[in-house]
Amino acid sequence: MERKEEQIEKMTKMGAVPKRNLRQFIKEKREAKASKTEPDKIQGTALEDPYKPTYDFQMVFKKSTAYGYIPSMEHFSPWDPNFPENSVRAVAIHDAIQPIIGRLDIIDESHFIDIDDDELLSLAHHRYGIELVRRLCANANENEAQMYDSIYYNGEESFECAVNAAKMAVTMSKFIAEGVFQNGFANIRPPGHHALPDNPNGYCLFNNVAIAANYLLKYNLAEKILIVDYDVHHGQGTQHMFYESDRVLYFSIHRYEHGTFWPNLKESNFDCIGDNEGTGYNVNVPLNDVRLRDYDYLAIITNILLPLAYEYNPSIILFNPDIILVSSGFDSCMGDQKGNMYVTPAFYGHVITALSGVAGGKICVILEGGYCITSLADAGLRTVRALLGDPPHPLEYTTHINPAVISTINDVKFVLRPYWKCFQLDPLLPIDNIHAFDRYNQHLVVKRYIGVRERPPFPTKGYYSCLNFSQQKLVDACIRYFKEDRYNLNETVIGYMVNEESPLHQPIVTCPTQEVQGRLDDILKKFRDFDLLDRMCHFELPLKNNRPTIWYEVEGHILQVHDSSYLLDIDYDNLPKKPDIYVCLSSRDVCRYSICTICYLAQKINLNEITHGIAIIRPPGHHAKEGEAGGFCLINNVVVATSFIAKNCHYKKILIVDFDVHHGDGTQELTYKSKNVMYISMHRYDDGKYFPKDKTGNYTYIGSGPGYGYNINIPFNNDKMGNSDYLFTWMKLVLPLSYSYNPELIIVSAGFDAGINDPLGNYKVSPETFGHMVNMLKPVAPMILALEGGYNFETTSLSMVNCARALLGHPLPMPVLEDVSEETKKTIQNVLSRAKPLWGILEVNKSCDPTMRDISDLEDIVKSIDDMTV
Asked: Where is the composition biased (Basic and acidic residues) (predicted)?
């Protein structure tokens, strides 16, 4: 084990902050900024070796998933046998995961940390609070229970159950923080996130998550912790305990309805963002409507949670959590009468998968609420499968985001804007007339609280509603439908293929070029060096008469995409001579092999033999048009493959995402009028002056005819784009658009020439950033990475390594993020101006008025404000 001094030195070289000097470090940053010190002269903002983060993860692989089970059978309400918080909840989840239990490492009471009960509980609770719960449980008096909101206990057994639940949460989080396990699911009860330091509350006796977080902090197992709470009720206990801390970022999505939903607290609103050192570290996302669906919640994840989780800006704010603790309440899931939301069980798997790129994939999921047993069990199963790395089921698509959710997202971004750079991508613009303004593009931030806090005595039975027989049958039918998972795999399997014929496509000695076989050779070498080859399935094209079995069918699709006379020109080397084009006798056959490789991987995906695929191929293809070559591209590999796949795999919607630094003008031209193929391209444009120097690469070109709206260009102009520009643009545009299209397959035109040190791209995107982009996109649909450009061997190969690691579910190194450039902000707004009217998920993007108002200030226009959410 490294000595502390060696760890500090290592972290400093990586641009990280020595944990014991965090506050001093932030102080120095602020002082440096105030004195206008150059950013690259501030310690830790520049990497001496841009490839070091990836090499530091060379032998870091995904560890096993832990599972802990504390059903607390002895803890039940002695006054109400039908009370919804009971052991059936934990048992139902436990039963649901039995088909995969053999893939989990079981933690039981024999593994518990050795700690005195009072010492453990005092990590989050006052001594008075501990003794209060102990006395209440010992007396088991219903009248005393009525003095505390929604509390029951069954003698001293309840106290012991609550202690064991907390011990499981602490033990599992400790093992994960120490690297014994990658992640884990604590199927425990009673829940905890409502428990306050000095009294129990909301079915919760002790705060499991808060105890676990404070244990990790106290024993230096973590310096920074992200707590994600998506239980439908606000975890006011957890918020209270960390409200003044900058070491714990608390994020909560909860039903609120302006304070009329339990726990009816003003401090559950969006404007409660922490205090003192914790200002900006408490994030409430209050939901002011019911029956919200997957895409409403997804908009919150992509617009609020992921940007927060990823922001790592040493010159302004440092978070970059060491571990994620999830207060996993499933009462927002369909069928739950408490939550009255319509979120499908699949949603939770998407959240866990998206978060797995952060904190080295260290995630401890701790059960909170959830009272519809059918949906609870399935949601728990899908959560565990996501922790294992299995592909999640597609989400339920909705055309538009609920207006109340749109309002809340903008409220949250506004109040956090001064503390987090990621929320400064949208402009602040004064609203001249608050009685009448453009509500589609502008947002007025208004605080509103109309709740009434409940007072004792509180009821101990019969104050909840349950599903009737018809409602339960409907929920059961929905869950059965969602279980028909189109991936149908027990585990994620990645297939990779190499165009073995590609060495035959080579330039003559007198024609030097960057597009050479060494690009592929170095990728394979790095895969071998990073021990990835044996972790994936290698496929070779099945041959017949020395040709791939799908050779002639692929040729037919080539003829559908490209002009026959143009193809003859390739065969006979009659193409116009250009510096970026070369042809030899084998070039067309090599292109055929590249296309066959993509198609074969797609067939394996369609047969559920693999989850995702990697096609290591050349020459690239995305510049090839119907009758014109360009940019090293002769035949458009991806478009021809898309034609083949649509016919043979019966896919009606295929998404092509292209992050090559050059605009894929050929791919755009060949798919421009189709709605069966959506094309999204992030590329360097420089006002049309950068290759391919075609005006059609601008944001104004969005498709035509049936394909109108299905071509999205994200053109960057006149700046040297880096990690922040790519990563936050990805979250802001690419990810929500990809989810909205809801494709059956994604093909990524994976060009890495936007990578650092590339001789053609001249951008500064680090290899690890591409891995995180792929990790966020992979839950949307099965994916094939098809190599395009990338001409610095080291950058290209390490970028592909990180993409492969992302698909495999291995921990990823975090990129160092600087400020998003002003040019990127302009690009985002330009794209939104065209895409927002066509894709409802983008309606969340608005400019905000710079002033936050209270509803009491607007009594004369209350009705006008109400109309904003109708």
From this structure: 28-41
